[in-house]
UniProtKB/TrEMBL annotation:
Source species: marine sediment metagenome
UniProt GO MF annotations: flavin adenine dinucleotide binding; NADPH binding; thymidylate synthase (FAD) activity; thymidylate synthase activity
Protein name as catalogued: Uncharacterized protein
Signal peptide positions (record): none
Higher taxonomy: unclassified sequences, metagenomes, ecological metagenomes
Pfam family, one: Thy1
SUPFAM superfamilies, alphabetized: Thymidylate synthase-complementing protein Thy1
GO BP field: dTMP biosynthetic process
């Protein structure tokens, strides 16, 4: 099911705003979000989810295009199918889903790993993505536009609406933007609350928890429980293996509009690790 919501929205003392969204949209338009380099993003990987579970999701809630455009030259369809033509197109789309599910099952029975078997059903899958950024204007300009594919245009339009309506939380220098973590009770999202006692004096504890939850695209573990120990364990595993993208969402408010990675005015947690980037200069 399509969805868009703000997970965390913060503004530093000099007016730089950092907003984290949770988005759900068709897997087949995911590449259109990935082209925007100002975004930090993590998504629920289809490689990590058992094929049977994904097949059940597709069977119960398959992606359907938002606009059934008529075939014509160019990248955009100006007219939509109607009547019997529209119903026929929908039936063909769903028939293809059934064939893909059958083929995925056959691959599973043949002993093929889920990272291959799952790919066959991706056109009918939704994907959930965490996006954090301090600059959204270009995204809104390009994707909330009549020329954009309707499925991604819906997402951009909902994001723009939420962004305009929401009031960011004012943070002082040194305070943290921590998606999926609340540090005070009574916020309306007490299920995300992490107490100072649980932090055990670790000043980066909240950032670690937020990092793990952004990597998992949920405040719950994969078995559906809230487990801070598992959050810390995942954080340490990610840092040890050099998987740094989830470390970009949590960030510390700066007192100036300095750039840290792809953020302005917010020091990404990732940038606090000396080995967060590996590379070499070409001769």
């Amino acid at each position: 099911m399509y969805g868009a919501k703000i997970i965390k929205d913060s503004i530093n003392p000099v007016g730089d705003r950092l907003t984290t969204f949770e988005l759900t949209y068709p897997r087949f338009v995911h590449a259109e979000l990935m082209t925007h380099r100002m975004f930090s993003r993590n998504s629920a990987s289809s490689r990590a989810i058992p094929t049977k579970k994904l097949m059940a999701r597709v069977e119960e809630n398959p992606v359907m295009p938002k606009w059934w455009g008529k075939n014509q030259k160019g990248m955009q369809a100006r007219e939509e199918l109607e009547g019997d033509e529209l119903e026929n197109a929908k039936n063909i789309w769903l028939a293809a889903k059934g064939w893909a599910l059958n083929c995925a099952q056959m691959l599973l029975e043949a002993g093929v790993h889920k990272q291959i078997a799952n790919r066959i059903i991706e056109p009918w899958m939704f994907i959930t993505v965490i996006v954090s950024a301090t600059e959204y204007d270009n995204w809104f300009h390009l994707r909330d536009d009549p020329g954009a594919q309707p499925e991604i245009a819906w997402v951009a339009r909902e994001m723009r609406k939420l962004y305009k309506e929401n009031k960011p939380n004012k943070l002082d220098i040194g305070e943290w933007h921590t998606p999926y973590v609340e540090t005070t009770l009574g916020s309306g999202r007490d299920h995300l609350f992490v107490s100072p006692e649980e932090a055990k004096g670790d000043p980066l504890f909240m950032a670690k928890i937020a990092t793990a939850r952004c990597a998992r695209v949920s405040y719950l573990t994969h078995d559906g429980t809230r487990d801070l120990f598992e959050d810390i364990r995942l954080h340490d595993k990610l840092s040890g293996n050099g998987h740094w993208s989830p470390f970009e969402h949590a960030a510390e408010a700066d007192g100036e509009s300095n750039r840290y990675g792809n953020f302005i005015g917010w020091r990404q947690y990732r940038k606090m690790f000396k080995n967060e980037h590996r590379g070499r200069r070409l001769p």
